[in-house]
Structure formats: C-alpha cells, structure tokens
Design a protein that fits this description.
two-stranded antiparallel ribbon, globular, 293 residues, mainly alpha
Length: 293
Amino acid sequence: MAFGPYLFLAILEGLVQASVLTVTAVGLSLVFGVMRVVNVAHGEFYMLGAVFAWFVTSFITGHPALGFVAALIISPLIVGAIAFASERVVLKRLNYDPEATIVATIGLLYIFQQSALIFFGPNAQAVEPPFYWRIRFPWFGYDGYKLFIIAAAIVLMGVVWYLMKHTKAGLVMRATQLDRETAQAFGINVDNVSAYVFALGAMLAAVAAVLVVPIQQAHYLMGLDPLLLSFIVVIIGGLGSIQGTIIAAIIIGLSDGILSVFFSPTLAKMVSTLLVAFVLIFRPNGLFGKAER
C-alpha cells in the first residue's frame, strides 16, 4: 500500500482509541468537575466493567449480540452501584478532602484489583463480538465493530451533553460544580449529587470497557493504561472541562493511533507525556480549564 492508505488505517485506529478514551475520560472529568475529587480508582471501574461484561456474556447463550446487549446494560449498572456504595461508605465520611480522597481511592484501586484477581482469576478472558461485519475500503477491509465503537461513543457524548445542558439533573450538577456552598444554600442536596455523579463517572468507564472488551480481553490489571491516559486527557483538556476532555481525547487518541502504526506504541506514550509537560508549563489549568478564584 502507498502512504495514503496506511495513514487512513492509522486514523481509523486512532479514532477507535479516541472514542474509548473519550467516554472513559469524560467520566473522570465529570467527577472532578462536580466533586473536586481526583478518582485514582477510575481505571478499576473500567476494569470491573470489562470483567462483569465477561461474566454476563458467559452466562447468556445464543447469538453473541444478546450477551453483548445484556452486558452493556447490566455491567454499568453493577459498577455504578459499587461506585455509589464506595462514595457513601468512604468519600462522604472523608468530607471530600482532596488529600484524603486521593489516598482513599488508591485504597479502593487495590481492593477492586485484588478482588477481581480472587474471583476472576489471573488469566485474560475474551468476549465474543456481537457481529463480524467487514467493511471493504478500496485498499483493505476493516472491522465493522470498531466503526460501531466510534458511533457508540458519539451517541454517548451526545447523551451526556443533553443531560448536562437540557435536563434538571444537569442543571443541578452544573450548579454544584460552579459553587457548592451556594447550591446547598438554595436547597440542593450536594452530598446526593456527589454520590450520583461518582456513580455516573464509573458507569461511563464501565460502558467504555464493555465496548472495547470484544477487541481486547478482560483482565484484572487492564485498568492501569485507561487511568493514565484519562489523567493525561483531563490535564491537557482542563480538569473539570468536558469540552476540553473530548477535544484532548481526540488529539491523544489520533496521535497514539498514528504514531503506533507508523512508529511504535512507546513513542506514542512519550509524545502524550510530553504534551502534558508542555501544557503544565504554559497552561497549568489546561487548554480549556479555568483558574480557581
């Protein structure tokens, strides 16, 4: 193939990575924006989403699409319930203190990781894709399921945007994000808002994992890379800025895909780290973040 088809393939792979990263990182950004909590356990919610997806699909017989749809519904709900309980039992009792919550979520990370190791085992498990369509381009065939991931991520981000901009729940979340004390003075139960936002962020990570696990494998250590990349994205985009998170995820995903195809995944990670360094030097609040007043 000439350079053009290789570039097109690299862009497609980058868009797939960007799609999964966008859904994962928006959940992390949402939690920080509303709660001002750095959730170090976010990658483990991603891992739990993949593990529960494998459990669900392994128990449902018939066409793989049936198990996948069931996993897409059940897995995020279970992960959301775990996140909700974790917020009530741990983070609320710490009064969302920034330093204490970082230590607490590190503890949650190891609890979830080791629990998955005990009950799930050390071996990676495959999840069968819901369909096996092959899209024919002039130069090569491409997995239709990967294009489905891109489309699903676009739909999910549309739902999140509508939720935040055009619903009462979104208005309450935005009010809590802007001024927690004033929101409480106007009768908003900010503690309940925090619990539901924490659960929503975890559910988004779980959805991203369910989408990606048919082209990867479920494993108890798979949460590390999504966590690191999500932090890179939210730092570049601006902590708490959903718009910045989406744009940064597209930039990082495309650069990672293109550099991985033409050079190496290691170089792609180095470039991402350098981008974070430059952003922290020249725009400490991120590309779209706002300075605290």
